[in-house]
Amino acid sequence: MTNSIAPVWDGNETWLVLGGGGLMAVFPLAYATVLPALYVPIILMLLGLIFRGVAFEFRFRTKRWKPLWEWGFAGGSTLAALMQGVALGALVQGIQIEGRAYAGAWWDWLTPFTMLTGLAVAIGYALLGATWLNLKTTGALQEKSRRIALYSGVATLALIGAVSLWTPFLEPIYFQRWFGFPTAFFSAFVPTLLAACAFGLWWGLTHDKHLLPFLAALGIFVLSFVGIGISFYPYIVPGALTIAEAAAPDASLSFLLVGALILIPIILAYTGYAYWVFRGKVDPEEGYH
Fold it and tell me: Which H/E stretch holds residue 259?
């Protein structure tokens, strides 16, 4: 399992850094107001990611303590996933802002809704991991991954449904966006495409397909974030700050655009090349170096 991600997983940290740094550079006001509201989940997420990275390296260097570091890797990954979902849920439910500054309490992020979104993201990541292992492994591990993918797929879709039913009642703008005319006509495409991805996931897993379930799981995540974008627009902090209000000055945005046009294709190219080089099934006899 770890050998399947060892060649490529470090590159994923690039997107985390780019996302955090990009938010600060492109939307400094949103960064300054959202971060104080989410200090606890973001710090816990980073601690989970740090512990996961340390455990990933240490488990290959020890025999006596290998089980401990394997549990550490799982625990750090789970904590990071839960906190990512909690932070997302806190943003969706709204952040109290007065005078362009966070005006809420220290624990406003901790609500039943954010607990639900945290669980949804964690189970969704389990689905992604299981479909990835179905793609990259063979034998008993692949069979186990396929079973886990079926169970986690059902759970992920159920949790997406629960979050989707709850979200429109958090803010009036969400309800209007999804059920008002004429926006409801366009919003209906998201659940329709989501159903298509769910069918592709089920069909691929039950017909011994390897790539299709992973692509379908990715599609479920992409469409979920498209749904969030539909709910948010034109706000970046729902009900408080629009994209235009939170954006950096035009001169700064122009400078950042040039950098993004150069850097993002390079990142995509070397990431794609890494996945291409290490394509195919993992050889269980080969170790991590």
Answer: helix 250-277
